[in-house]
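User: What would this chain look like folded?
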Amino acid sequence: MFEVLLLSSLLSQAVTGRPASAEEIRKFDITVFPNGKGLPAGKGTAADGKEIYKAKCAECHNEKGEGRDQQYPRLVGGVGSLTTPKPIKTVGSYWPHATTVWDTIFRAMPYETPRTLKPDEVYAVTALLLHWNGIITETFELNEKTLPQVKMPNRDGFIPDARPYQKLKK
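Assistant: Here's the prediction, encoded as C-alpha cells.
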C-alpha cells in the first residue's frame, strides 16, 4: 500500500499539483498474489489470445515468443536449462506462478503502451504463453479461479531466504 500511496503522491504532484482522488489511486492499486487474490473477473483461452498476441506482442517477442536477440526476451522454451551454464529463463522454464505472468502482462505490456490491455485480453495472452510452453491446452479457459491453480514447471524451484535479516517484521 505504501508503494501505491507514494506513486499516487508522485503522480498527483507531477501531473496536476493536487492530491490524487480515490479513483486515481484505485487504478494503481493492482496487487495480484500467487493465490489469485487481486485478480479481476475475466476469461480467455490460448485460441482467444492468438490475434491479440499477433497485434500487441509479436513485434517485440516474435511470432511464437522466441524473443528478439539482444532486444526483447524469449517467452517460450528453456525447460531443463536452468541448471546448465547458459540457462534460458522463460515463462515456461523459470516463472514460479502463472498469476505473476498475468500480473506482468497487465501492468507492463505492451511495452510502448502499458496498461492498455483489458483483463480478458490479458487472460487470453497469458493462456497463449502457457499453451506455447506446454503447460495448458489451447482450449483451457483461464479466469480468476483457474489461473491460480495452474502448476508452473518451476514452482518448486525457488527456496525461502533463510537469512535472519530477510524475515518480515510484524
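The radius of gyration is 18 Å. If you want, I can go into more detail on any region.
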